[in-house]
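Quick start: load a record and inspect it. Here is Tat pathway signal protein:
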Amino acid sequence: MKRRDFIAGLGGLSTLALTGQGVRAQEAWPSRNITMVVPFPAGGQADIAARPVASYMQKVLGKPIIIDNRSGAGGSLGNATVARAQPDGHTLLMTLSSLAVLPESDRIYDRPVAYEVDQLQPVARVLADPTLFAVPASAPWKSIEEFVADAKARPGAISYGSSGPFGTLHVSMEMFAIAAGIKLLHVPYRGATPAISDLLGGQIQALASAPGTLKQHVDAGTLRVLANFGGERLAAFPNLPTFKELGYPDVEFYIWAGLFAPKGMPAPVVTKLRETMKQAMSDPEVTKTFEAAGNMPAYQDSEEFAAFVAKDSARLVAVARKIGKV
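Running the structure step on this input writes:
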């Protein structure tokens, strides 16, 4: 054998060896624990979406999935953490519809943008619930009409809570306030859970949040819901009118929750992650857990979810620009 043929042969073997190592590395995913960042406190919509899915996924993947409730800046802190993470499939993000609004809020305030949406790739949508307008059961308002009349009589006197400036709860309430021509007092929190706690305690007077975070309190008689931000009535709240029914055709808001990953993951990891999510969202136990909390599963695979995110985000960014500096 000629020397150059021998060397070429070694080169081919080296290439084959490296290719084999690459395949084995990809096939080894996950090689360690997976962190699923939830950019809000425990008990909120993103957390409700994350836990049943993570529980199922770790059974299939054979590695623990650790929920990291990294709240702050209305969700921006956790979103940015994952956007900057290594795209190896070991850091994931379960986040909400405020994903696209938060970078826009940075631009509105001339702040450095914490992350861009295109740094993250959609994996699967989990939930897509409309927010509900809630007040304490002891509140004087029995309808949206009564609430609006009082708010017009006392501009800025009625307070509402949110998960932070330009978060999902803030944008939905301001969407309503703009349409109704009223001025409310915005009180930001680190997430829905502490906001609901203060709503129950009477420190704030109103809140828009997902059915799953409100249902137990409505069932217990401690909160009252006045309207549904969705396009149609909910089976869990059949007597609750939509804002469209109440004469506000442009007031529609869904607090969706979906799984994202840092952009640039190896294709085999993406495929395995998508397949695992599809299995999780069709599992009866996962479905039962969501329904018991008052949430209806709303699964979408990555391509369909990416198109949904793009369309919904454009609409919400337009609302954020109307809100402006607050």
